[in-house]
Design brief:
3 helices, Calcineurin-like_PHP, single chain, alpha/beta, Metallo-depent_PP-like, UPF0046_metallophosphoest, about 220 residues
């Protein structure tokens, strides 16, 4: 399984036919990218796309699928997300042979969408853990990738309020024990970004793009 993993920064050369130089089986988005960009990548490579929204993305909450239609508040509407993409925020999803647990958004710093206080995100994380445990009870499978927009606190985050990580992700990692936590939100600005390890989980900043192989 090879994945094109993207977040936060549009790479113009990938938004062309040059994307075919990066063959992949899956597109993974960690937030703050135009949904048209994710849609193009998945369509050009003819592969599935799984993502979580970032703090600069439109609010996707409240949308459902019924009879092939996108619905909100009981009425048909156009889903603003990438066509064919799977929003993993707050969900456990199986795509391309991998099990993802998703938590999008950043720490709340204004009234924009996809922002959560530490307490709100902790509640969302506890619900996610319960869903993962139920799925594991049903089929015996663990989570492979914890896909987030913001990183865990004190694990590659920053001290300015918009770029602080979430405290609850440490406990989420401890509960789910995924092999990977992939996040965006923290722009390296040319600096090297080493992987970090929490327990048995590798935490990777995927701002820009990464080609990753999952065994």
């Amino acid at each position: 399984m090879k994945a094109l993993v993207v977040a936060d920064e549009v790479e113009e050369r990938l938004w062309t036919s040059a994307v075919h130089h990066h063959p992949a089986d899956l597109v993974i988005g960690a937030g703050d990218l135009p949904y048209a960009y994710l849609e193009f990548l998945a369509s050009a490579l003819d592969v599935p796309c799984v993502f979580v929204p970032g703090n600069h993305d439109p609010d996707l909450s409240g949308y459902t699928r019924y009879g092939g239609l996108s619905m909100k508040d009981g009425f048909p509407t156009v889903w603003p997300g990438p066509a064919g993409g799977v929003n993993a925020d707050g969900r456990i999803v199986d795509i391309g042979g991998l099990r993802f647990a998703g938590l999008g958004g950043s720490v709340r710093y204004n009234d924009g969408p996809n922002q959560w206080t530490q307490r709100q995100q902790a509640r969302r994380a506890r619900r996610l853990v319960r869903r993962a445990r139920f799925r594991r009870w049903r089929d015996g499978r663990d989570v492979d990738v914890l896909l987030t927009h913001a990183p865990p606190r004190h694990c590659g985050d920053r001290e300015d309020p918009p770029h602080r990580g979430f405290d609850c992700l440490h406990r989420t990692i401890e509960s789910l024990r995924p092999k990977w936590l992939l996040h965006g939100h923290i722009h390296p600005h040319g600096e090297p970004v080493p992987d970090r390890v929490i327990g048995g989980t590798t935490v990777r900043n995927v701002v820009g793009h990464r080609i990753m192989e999952f065994v």
